[in-house]
Structures
1.
Amino acid sequence: MRVSCLSYHLCNQLLRTCGQWLLSVAGVIGCVQFAQAQDLYFAQPYANRMQQNPAYAGLLDDYSITLSYRNQFPTLAGTFQTSQLAADYRFRDQHSAAGLLVNYDRTGSVGYTRFQAGGVYAYHVRLNEQLSVSGGASVSYGLQRVSYGNLVFGDQLSDDGVVRDYSLEVADYKPVHYVTAGIGGLLYTERFWVGAAAHHLNQPNLGFVTQSSLPLRLALQGGYKVYLVRTTVKREYKEISLAPVVNYTRQGGSQRAEAGLYFTATPLTLGAVYRGVPLPGSLRPQQVLTAIAGVGVGSFRIGYSYDMSLSQFSSDLGGAHEISLALREFDSLEAAWRRLKRRNYPTIPCPAF
């Protein structure tokens, strides 16, 4: 009886491990041959704002540098991990800004990686005393590859369980190089913002063997900020506010809608975002609730978020952890001088995390 029970648990664990590995391999094989590629997703869209719209460059600070890391499906063999470096700089003329965006995605056990780096340019115009507009564009270079060092093929396994160093399987998928471009625009005041962006306008080919284009990604975002307290004492800005936000993304045959609420009491920001809002004419999406917390210390901002799945499939794979670390700088003396010269432009009121 004890031997039977032990065998059952061993078989159950083996099936679970094999199932996770096969799911990872199936995902990569689908990406290699059949499925359309898709972009990464960040649960802190405003910490990674240039990822969703290049028009955000230079709208929050004189300059900023942000590092982000996301670990998705941590219980799955070959977890999906994403890292991003983003930087932007607003020129002294206050009309233009430049940015840098570098992404690196990988899956641990299968060895699939994608690296993408590019530049961003945005131009800001003040339409009147309250309303401003920003337009942006981005161009990026990408490299996608599969590493075979972590894979074991059937002819490498001997009868006694020893793994040989060589295989007759053909593994000659060459790395894929591509260039992609995107545009975006934002309309904003000191209280609300609304924007739209289109990424991968040229829909580059990412297929290793057959044609597999990176489909156009359409992103819409908006929000409104309600100020409860807003003061500046000894050049130190204090704010207590609520900001409801909405975001919509469509890429290929999939779409995602989310709604959230941010509460800010300087220097603390708390947020909750519900992803999986039902859309007319679409299947029921996976439902995820994201909790976000961020704090600012001087010029530094650090944020953390966790995705809590409300659907059985994604909950079995685990949630997602995400961390962002930003260095943000705003020259208050320069801003005061620009205000006297009537050359100061309002910052966009979106959250920083």
2.
Amino acid sequence: MNPVIQEEISGCGIASCAVLAGITYAQAKETANALGIYAEDSALWSDTEYVRKLLRALGIAVAPTETPFDTWESLPDKALLAIKWRMEQGKPFWHWVVFVRNEQETVVLDSKKALKTNTRRDFGRIKPKWFIRVG
């Protein structure tokens, strides 16, 4: 699995779906837009339904509920994580990233364009609030 860089400042949800589907940002954005999902809509990073709808359209199954983050070791092998969680004017917002664990490595794939590397291993700096199991 490879990181996908978000092409819009608020496109982390679309980029995370692209990572999980193994497609480009442009392909995921095209599918999202056809479903009425746009990166400019703040609900994409303050509501889980948009990402769930896009993942369903891409043929990817996810858990029906969010699970509070406990430890990195207790995460499933593949998950969507909500990081940088905060409240703004009474509404929750977060940044979507993908957690992946396999025989070779354990990483967080972060779509943020400004990062030196989008394959993150600095788990002590990443503060997940909750996750959605993928697969």
